[in-house]
Amino acid sequence: MTSTVVSVPMPTVPRRRRTPEDVASAAPVYGPRRVLLAAPRGYCAGVDRAVIAVEKALEAYGPPIYVRKQIVHNLHVVHTLEEQGAIFVDETDEVPEGARLIFSAHGVSPAVVQSAKDRNLQTIDATCPLVTKVHREAVRFARDDFDILLIGHEGHEEVEGTYGEAPEHMQIVNGPEDVDKVTVRDPEKVIWLSQTTLSVDEAMHTVNLLRERFPTLQDPPSDDICYATSNRQAAIKKIAPEADLVLVVGSANSSNSVRLVEVALEYGAKASYRVDFANEVDESWFEGVATVGVTSGASVPENLVQDVLNLLAEYGYGDVEEVVTAEEDIIFSLPKEIRATLKAMGDSSRGLGGRRRADES
Fold first, then answer.
1. Phi and psi (nearest 5°) for 191?
2. Is 333 annotated as a binding residue?
3. DSSP string computed for 176-213
4. What is the CATH code of the structural domain delimited by 130-213?
5. Which residues on neighbouring strands pair with residue 149, listed in sequence order?
6. What does 78-116 look like in DSSP terms, one character per residue?
């Protein structure tokens, strides 16, 4: 008789936090405690548009609404939409034939679009318009027979979607370490494109190295790294030199959130950590810390940042100064499929990006 060993995980026991007094006694803090809060932070227009698209689809058609991959890279957003009736899948073959499917903000390849058609799925394309711009650039330069060097992280959903537009003309360059591996057919017909959520500095370092190998390397017609990624990195660059600690709110699979941690450290922060939620903050990080910088990735709702600020206030960091480096007023309309349905229902609202919501006038 064969016995089977079943592993039963231990129940999660909430960690008891050390008191503010315990933390204060562990290491002296020189200077007043304060928080430098980055602005802009959080939701960008493309994320806002994608999240609203799922919300409006659930309202208009009722659940279930299927979504390929995470609509945006944030655990809280995904779980909230699941509670409302969204079902997240990895591939189209997990969706019942004829059902309604939303493509995530990161975009998909033509092969995924065709797979959805083959299953008679009713699709809604919530791809960020700035990602769509990169897709169109890829198609255009492939048509003109260029070699396309796509700077980005292999395996990331956005990179997979862009690569799928012109795989026979494109190579993925993960970073500086890949530059020496690049081969092209004609050094006079080479252009670079990029994932929209990269570190601006790292991307340009890679471009400069590529240009050393291919001096006539062409630039994309306009910046591929999106305005929100650039703005959030610029804000944290300003805060980091004064910060003993930088907290970045965002999920582990959010490329732009992970980059913010790296940028903070590169620009002078003594320490930086990424957390999904306030309860992941380790109070030992506050030992000896006078100034805390706080920011969030482009797919993070503001309430998660406020939870972190509330925790910081409990530990004596109640003085919050917002550091504003840019104003964002980008507006994207909802996907055309949603707009048509809403118009038929007499709903004239639009999906508005940035800090505004679709139901605001």
1. -135, 150
2. no
3. GGGGGG---S-TTSEEEEE-TTS-HHHHHHHHHHHHHH
4. 3.40.1010.20
5. 171, 192
6. HHHHHHHTEEEESSGGGSPTT-EEEE-TT---HHHHHHH
Q: Which CATH class is domain 30-43+227-324?
A: alpha beta
Both tokens of 313, joined, read: 């206030």
Residue 361 marked as a ligand binder: no
Q: Which residue has the tokens 């790296």?
A: 262
**Does residue 55 carry a catalytic annotation?**
no
The whole-model pTM stands at 0.90
Query: What average pLDDT score do residues 282-310 get?
Result: 97
Question: To which residue do tokens 């993960």 refer?
Answer: 174
Q: What tokens appear for 107 in the block?
A: 């975009």
Tell me the CA end-to-end span of the chain in Å, nearest whole number: 70
Q: Phi-psi bin for 250: left (phi > 0), alpha (psi -120 to 50), beta?
A: left
Q: Do residues 233 and 200 touch, judged by C-beta distance below 8 A?
A: yes
- Residues 216 and 70: their CA atoms lie apart, in Å, by 38
Cβ within 8 Å of residue 168, ≥6 positions away: 142
44 in a known ligand binding site: yes
109 a known binding residue?
no
Decide: 204 and 184 in contact? Cβ < 8 Å: no
Q: Which two tokens stand for residue 259?
A: 């980059």
Q: Shortest CA distance to 197 belongs to which of 227, 167, 166, 238?
A: 227
Greatest Cα-to-Cα distance within the chain, rounded to the nearest angstrom: 71
> What is d(CA 97, CA 99) in angstroms, rounded to the nearest whole number?
6
Is 303 labeled as ligand-binding? Answer: no
**Of 60-74, 164-178, 305-319, 327-341, which range is least confident?**
327-341
76 is in an annotated binding site: no
Provide the residue type at 299 as one letter: S
Spatial contact of 23 and 287, defined as CB atoms under 8 Å apart: yes
Q: Is 284 annotated as a binding residue?
A: no
Any idea which fold 45-128+330-360 has?
Answer: Rossmann fold (3.40.50)
Nearest-10 crossing angle of helices 129-143, 45-61: 110
Strand order in the sheet with 65-68: 86-89, 65-68, 100-103, 122-125
What residues does each domain of the chain span?
30-43+227-324, 45-128+330-360, 130-213
Active-site pick, 55, 137, 157, 158 = 158
Averaged pLDDT for residues 214-229: 93
84-115 per-position pLDDT tens digit: 999 999 999 999 999 999 999 999 999 999 99
